[in-house]
Amino acid sequence: MLKAIAENVWVAKQPLKYMGLNVGTRMTVIRLIDQKLVVISPIEPTETLNSELSDLGAVGHIISPNLYHHLYAKRFKSCHPNATLWATEGLKEKKPSLPIDRIIQLDGSVLWSEIDLTSFGGLRTLGFNGFDSFNEWVFFHAASRTLVLTDAAFHFDASFPFVERLIARALGCYERLIPSVLERIATKDKQQLKAAVEKVLLWDFDQVVMAHGSVIERGGKEMFRSGYERFLR
What is the torsion angle, in degrees rounded to the nearest 10, for the CA atoms of residue 205, residue 26, residue 42 and residue 61? Predict the structure, then answer.
């Protein structure tokens, strides 16, 4: 299930339906210098996946990077009980049953020298209950020049079925790295989001991984800049 996309970086994906659409979902695995694995936005921890992970190293950290991507975190933690489960602020209140160990904060408590991270504040989406915050964190692996997003942007291309491509065109995220029209409508704090985007653009990334869509292997920084251009004005 794991696919290497750079040295010490892997991804794995699985089917997932959202509002009836086959959007799929993807997790990212980064191996640290100490050989511990950081798993961002975990998917279903199958026997095959766990076996492949054990071949790479021990899972040391599991990250639920926003308020939406927690569906498999509890099961993943049960398969890797010695790992630290990190979560964004607010997830403990939203899902009290999650065995969260640490809340992600920019206070020096996240000690992964190989991975930079920043809060992607301001981004909201139009959900079933109105305008919902993501409280998303985004990550940068400098050694591979890889940016890891979750729901901060989508990138659907010709590899997706016809219906999903059609919907992606309507949402404005077909062959573009961009938040969907739902996020663009719901996001009101443009200055906070602009500040977050500007922080991300300080990183020297080329490859971009997101939870929903196709990995961008090259030219990701310019695609990200273009997708968020309206918020940079």
Answer: -20
Could you tell me the two tokens for 73? 């975190």
Instruction: Please name the residue that has the structure tokens 């990183």.
Output: 203
pLDDT tens for residues 75-94? 999 999 999 999 999 999 99
Residue 142 token pair: 């400098």
User: At which residue do the structure tokens 């599991």 appear?
Assistant: 62
DSSP 96-114: TTS---EE--SSS----TT
- For the chain, percent helix, then strand, then coil, each to nearest 5? 25, 30, 40
Task: With respect to residue 30, please indicate whether it lies within any of the assigned structural domains.
Answer: yes
Q: How many domains does the chain have?
A: 1
Amino acid at 81: P
133 occurs within a structural domain? yes
Domain that holds residue 26: 3-95+115-232
**Which pLDDT value is given to residue 132?**
85
pLDDT digit string, tens, across residues 102-154 = 999 876 666 788 999 999 988 888 766 778 889 999 999 999 999 999 999 98
User: In this structure, is residue 109 part of a structural domain?
Assistant: no
pTM of the complete model: 0.92
Kind plus residue range of the DSSP H or E element containing 116: strand 115-120
How is 25-69 classified by DSSP, letter by letter? EEEEEEE-TTSEEEEES-----HHHHHHHHHH-EEEEEEE-SSS-
What CATH number should be reported for the domain holding residue 137? Answer: 3.60.15.10
56-81, pLDDT tens digit by residue?
999 999 999 999 999 999 999 999 99
The reply to whether 108 falls in a domain is no
